[in-house]
Structure prediction request, 225 residues.
Amino acid sequence: MQTIRVAIDGPSGAGKSTLARAAAADLGFLYVDTGAIYRTVGLFVQENGLDAGDAAAVAAALPGLRPELCYDGEGRQRMLLNGRDVSEEIRLPEISRYASAVSALPPVRAYLLDTQRELARKHSVIMDGRDIGTVVLPDAEVKIFLTASAQVRAERRCRELEERGTPQPFPEVLRDIESRDYRDTHRAAAPLRQAEDAVLLDTSALSFQESRETLLRIIRERTGL
Ligand code: DC
Prediction:
């Protein structure tokens, strides 16, 4: 069966995962959140007391790491680390920092490449991350670069934190987003950038519903679905 691959890349906080999950549900595709895989590696490195900046030490430990994706009854992706469900733990702020550090290591990126490609061989997927259209699935049928201004992303993040009961001052959130953007776009290994053949979707001035409809329209136009 011919599978369809939709690659969605963009900076953190642009709403990639929420929009990609919604579009995958609309189309009956598998949604793959590759950030969760990097987060699982981050947790593994933290639990093993490794230095996330030491490429050689992390590379030597990788054979002991078995990250697996599975889906619950509502189609939500869960992450397993050597058989243990770590879906909640990988969202902790400390693990975000570990994930960011390990994702800059070439041996980690190489190790995860096949896992990601294998998923897209077996299923039609919407895969989101930072290098999906440029490195993981360069032949994807649809590539989208999903972004929003740092200001808007920080405003959305502040609202989310407030709703969760863990508010943070706006300037701090904005600074955090800007420094993550810098790290993601300036690292040597697979930096975040828009693929030449990617469609730019800037959601700064769009509501969630408008973004969802625009995303679906782009996918439908490109695939004839
Ligand atoms: O999207 P996220 O915040 O869950 O991603 C966690 C970290 O992994 C983030 O620092 C960026 C990195 N990442 C990456 O380098 N490549 C990907 N394809 C996905 C995520």
